[in-house]
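Hi, here's the filled form for the chain we discussed.

Project: internal
Contact: R.S.
Residues: 161
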Amino acid sequence: MSEQLNTQDLQDMSDTDVEEEVSTIERCLTFESGELVLYISTNYVIEIINNHTITTLPLMPSYIKGIINLRGQILPVVDIQQLMGKYDPDAPEKTCIIVLDIDSVSLGIIVDSVRQVIDIDLKNVRPIPLKRQQKLLNGMVTMEDGSVFMSIDCQALSTPQ
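And the returned structure, exactly as it came back:
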């Protein structure tokens, strides 16, 4: 009888290991902003919109570009390049907005372009060197082709700076 329990215990532990293995893979949207390739979990992404009119507001921090009216919902729009201190005033106008929902807070982020949705193994995400200099990034992953993708810290994005 004790052998059956031990065998069952081993089977349960094996099943748990498989579940943990599966849970480290996350679907992520990749996009470009400035010279960086960034990613964010698709769990936060509501939609991607192009050529939407942004209404500017007075007395806002420079990284908040204004608000948009998306089907009756008013959303703030953040320029993540400017928030990270990498704003290039000579860059062409950005027209792509990724609409996010972070802990029931909806907002849009302006990006240069959206790439694709990929699976990222969270076990491969490493800390960013000199993190204290990064306001918005919380990890990086090196892809098989050698390219490096940076992770957006959604909690930092949804809280006032």
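Let me know if anything looks off before we file it.
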